Amino acid sequence: MLTRYAPSPTGHLHLGHVVNAIYVWGLARAGAGRVLLRMEDHDRIRCRPEYEAGILEDLAWLGFVPDQGLDPLLRQSDRDGVYREALERLRHTHHVYVCDCSRKRIAGEHYDGFCRTRGLTDGPRCGLRVQMDDGGDLLLRDRDGNWTYHFAVTVDDIQQGITHIIRGDDLLSSTDRQLRLRRMLGVAASPVFVHHPLVLKPNGEKLSKSAGDTGVRELREAGVGAADLIGRAAAAVGLIDEARPVAASDVAALFLKPEA
Ligand SMILES: [Zn+2]
Q: Which of 22, 81, 131, 159 could form a disulfide with 95 if both were Cys (CB 3.0 to 4.6 A apart)?
């Protein structure tokens, strides 16, 4: 069993990231698995080195230690050649085409295939899409030249041999697309997906990276200990009934059934 913890350095960690870490390390340790750390910095415009450093520092402070990917640090931004190669493989078997549609023109998740037969030449301000069987052609590289989340993650999960993908249930809707892309890349075997609940704000919204009162740094500076913070996150999604200190090294116990 190999799973991954894959933060984006577009902000600092908050309670939602801690919840994900509890599930990733907890399920991995409960199942004698390993955890790979992957910096998902495919978006070069939004990612910052200071966030990367902050995430690594907060993870270490919390006590979540990856088994691989930390030294040297595994970053998507260092893997351009891998994505290029995967793109070339995809071109052999599928229709990959240039798309210059703006986000405004697309206005929504589902792309209508407008550029599919336009035969545009690749250049600045052009994205790349692959035709999917049921339409909704997936963007592989955006108009700023960044590999997209779906593409980079799918290629990484295949190439790094990830067997278990453990993530928040906000990503449930993208599972099907990623599985299809995986098959299009020639991989028949599917990883196991585990989708876990998210920590929500009292009004039901998702936490954002700027959420001051739930930020790991802010709580730490306010004197909250690592085990208290992990306990707070575990209680927020119902893994434990009431917040109590839980050390990072003990999160597997949250997933092991007590002896009868
Ligand atoms: Zn287009």
A: 131
